[in-house]
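ok posting inputs for the NAI job
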Amino acid sequence: MLNIDLTGKVALVTGSTRGIGRAIAGTLAECGAKVAVVGRDRAKAEAVAEEIGEARGFACDVTVPADVTMLVQEVEEKFGSLDILVNNAGITRDNLMLRMKDDDWDAVMDANLRSAFVAIRAASRGMMKRRWGRIVNITSVVGLMWNKGQANYAASKAGLVGLTKSVAKELASRNILCNAVAPGFIETDMTAAMTAEARAAMSGEIPLERLGAPVDVAHAVAFLSSDLAAYVTGQVLVVDGGLAM
Ligand code: NAI
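and the output
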């Protein structure tokens, strides 16, 4: 049990049916928050919600702006509030830049960057009225260090940093904090596709000599969602075992 108290707060975590998002949803619930678990598949989201405690499952494809806006309204109606928004859903469509299709660019931008903007715009209205809010965007060390074959992903994740800082400045006077967490290489479906050699080579580059666990990222999000982070806004907390140093 983490010594972070989120009792009475309502949290929405996009893409929380597996991987890092699921760990974030579970950790926030452990800290006492009521959690909206969100996935494209409602049944999966409901199954995860049942496992993690005081939570409900919702279906939303975050690439559809109207659906994201409706999701926020639905969560506010069902739980009576929305205090913590975690923009976690994300995809990769890797290719060398010269071979990258317009579709690969648009799909990654829509899922990783526009989705966060739309969710923040929708969720911030209620947060402003209540004069309390926490927004955490999951970016990536790739958005800070760049990577061959990931021009679209790196641009979307760097864009999230710009979004985070702009929103932090716009909403600070209403006691709404907006920060980002930048994971390094974390053991999830997204990194499972790596070969054993690539994995070993990557671990060799990481000062802490291991890939991270989803819960390593979740702990950083829990901190930024809590009153312990009351004087922290517009920051990027890097959770990467020292990789990007
Ligand atoms: P994952 O692929 O295991 O999970 C991604 C989640 O987002 C899934 O639940 C998926 O269904 C959801 N999602 C994707 N597109 C969606 C859409 N259009 N609508 C609704 N949900 C959608 O990936 P992982 O590793 O858990 O990644 C979570 C976040 O962390 C992503 O934003 C990723 O870019 C970021 N990240 C991951 C790293 C890693 O090493 N695994 C490193 C740095 C950042």
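notes: The first helix runs from residue 19 to 30. Strands lie at 10-13, 34-39, 55-59, 84-87, 133-138, 176-183, 236-239.
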